[in-house]
Amino acid sequence: MDLGTAEARAAVLREEITQHNYRYYILDDPRISDADYDALMRELMGLEGEFPQLITADSPTQRVGAPPLSEFKPYRHRTLMLSLSNAFSPEDLRAFDARVHRLLNLSMDEPVEFVCELKIDGLALSLVYERGRLVTAATRGSGDVGEDVTTNVRTIRTIPLSLPAELPLVEIRGEAFLTHAEFRRINMEREETGQPTFANPRNAAAGSIRQLDSRITAGRQLDFFAYALGHSDGFKPESQSHLLETLQQWRFHTNPNWQRCANMDEVIAFLEHWNRGREALPYDIDGVVVKVNRCDLQQELGAVSRHPRWASAFKFAPTQGRTRILDIITNVGRTGAITPVAIMEPVEIAGVQVSHATLHNQDEINRKDVRVGDTVVIQRAGDVIPEVVEVVTAERPSHSVPYVMPTNCPVCGTAAERPEGEAVLRCPNELCPARVKERVRHFCSRAALDIEGVGPALIEQLVERDWVKDPADLYGLTAEQLAELDRMGDKSASNIVQSIQNSKHPSLSRLIFGLGIRHVGEHVATLLSRHFGNLERLAHASEDEIGAVAGVGGVIAESVATFFDMPETQELLEKLRLAALQPEENAGAQAEGPLKGKSFVFTGTLTRLTREHAEEMVRSMGGNASSSVGKATSYVVAGERAGSKLERAKALKIPVLTEDEFLDMVESLSSAQ
To answer: Both 122 and 189 in a single domain?
Structure first.
């Protein structure tokens, strides 16, 4: 293919993939399968690999992250990123309404239209587009100067890298945030690896954006809602509602829960509705932003100090409360993690009765010095399990004693272990009833095999009766058996058996996730599924082969390899096979080719290729691209300023190639096929 043809095809692919991303991540209305999407991405990567000059900053292939930065550079905003004055009651909002009318020389009988938007509890960002291309992304910072986080922000898939309208300059502002589900996933992974968990989704979002290694940011599914316009050349919206509609047309993710309000009575009705309904949202909000809708009126009202006169933020009551700890118990999870939980006097927080809170581990208990009988401040963020923020030591009973975790599993009595370098205490007994119940529950969960009707209460009975010792035992259950259980009729028993049988052909990624491998969440399960293609290939892969999968690090690779080496796992897989459970193979799996069995590590700065394209070239020819040098590494490709990986390759006597030598090898092997 000549350069001109490749350039035209690459442009078509970029637009097509961008549209599919928009439909998938923003409209939640995908039109093609994962395999078809992967095929488009592979074709584009192949063209950009063959013709590096076709790589553009807004290409969908550029969302995977880049090598770590040493620091963030300061960025001075073109126009000040203002903060909002706060309102805490309907009376405060009516006073705001009166000020708006007074400043506009209007009587209170003359209508002023407002727009109400949910106030997302995340991290404010400014996105600068020049001639339709994203060139800079920065945090709010002081309002005058923020931090340049462009590399990290490019990994957020709900932020377009280019705009349909090629304006000379436009600055879009909005909020980066994490959904509750993604927040739980990140904290679960951090807890499993002994890292401190994030206190709430906002802290997690801010921490993700401010990672010096953008590959970590790319591994966290951040979202973004656009809602404001900073500096702009060539676009002047008539109103806030016009701006929101335009942002949506430009393929930005905008919060659908906004409303035009004819007067302050409608504004107050809106915020009262969302104060009651905010717990049902999949993300955190801490209030409602009220803006004068017309932009000409906004301009006339202006700003005072650092607050616009045309907007106000109504803040909901804080999601914190005070209560007393009655007891501390321990729960045992599917991986054996023994987690302390505080049982408390019930307290209402944001309309929800809360009676327990996670204490995470012994180190956290010691750090906060939490004891039975203490009065504590707790917080609840969305539907995340509440946690203790601080202890009110001035109200501590005189007879209180420090809490110490049990030395044995509270369920099966096995001596508990704390692996070196971890903060989590674990039960090592694979047959511990608590672990079995959690393992089966995880296997049946919606993100795994999604077996309807098999919930905690049923699993409790199945394990107690010794009918189910692992997930494979579910497939041997009969309707007659289930009908014997408490509150189980013949019809319900039959429906559950049918639901179990219907789960025999899951996607490979769902099954991998459902197996409950430590450190393997939905994202990693998808990566493993796409790379290996079927369960047998994954089960027989070495630790080095697993670690060579892009996005899978050494800790995860060791965990996966160890899991499949265990006799219990091999027995489980055989039982699943005999039960005729057959996952769908992934069409986007690792390709066959002349580099099959070869593992490459790229280090230093490449000049003709991006590292991601070089790694994709290896994978497209059947090889592995790894991030670490080991005995299984076949070649190290060293660019400019190569460091410790090059030294390790020399120490292990691993062949080292220059970038040109690597490309010559690829070209030679390609022509021989």
So the answer is: yes
Backbone angles phi, psi at 400, to 5 degrees: -70, 150
* Residue 649: CATH number of its domain: 3.40.50.10190
Q: Is residue 185 part of a domain?
A: yes
Active site residue 631: no
Do 512 and 497 share a structural domain?
Answer: no
pLDDT confidence band for 405 (50 / 70 / 90): very high
- Same-domain check for residues 307 and 335: no
Query: 415: closest CA among 338, 519, 329, 518?
Result: 338
Which amino acid type is present at position 355? S
Tell whether the model's pLDDT for residue 13 goes beyond 60: yes
Distance CA 109, CA 264 (A): 12
Handedness of CA 181, 184, 186, 188 (dihedral sign): negative
pLDDT in tens, 556-610: 889 999 999 999 999 999 999 999 999 987 655 555 678 877 888 888 878 777 7
SS3 state at 196: coil
Same domain for 285 and 205: yes
pTM (2 decimals)? 0.52
CB atoms within 10 A of CB 655: 11
**Rounded to whole angstroms, what are the CA distances from 31 to 45, 91, 240?**
21, 48, 31
How far is residue 65's CA from residue 639's CA, in Å, rounded to a whole number?
18
The CA distance from 493 to 462, in Å, is: 13
pLDDT at 217: 85
pLDDT of res. 103:
92
| CATH for 120 | 3.30.470.30
Residue found under tokens 């025999």: 504
Residue tagged 């955190």 (tokens): 284
Average pLDDT of the residues of the chain: 86
Q: Which domain holds residue 354?
A: 320-395
Please, which residues bridge with residue 507 across strands? 584
Considering 119, 437, 598, 645, which one is annotated as catalytic? 119
**pLDDT band at residue 395 under the 50/70/90 scheme:** very high
Query: Do residues 393 and 408 lie in contact, with contact meaning Cβ atoms separated by under 8 Å?
Result: no
- The count of domains in the chain is 6
Who's near 300: CB < 8 A, 6+ residues apart?
103, 104
213-229, pLDDT tens digit by residue?
Answer: 788 888 888 999 999 99
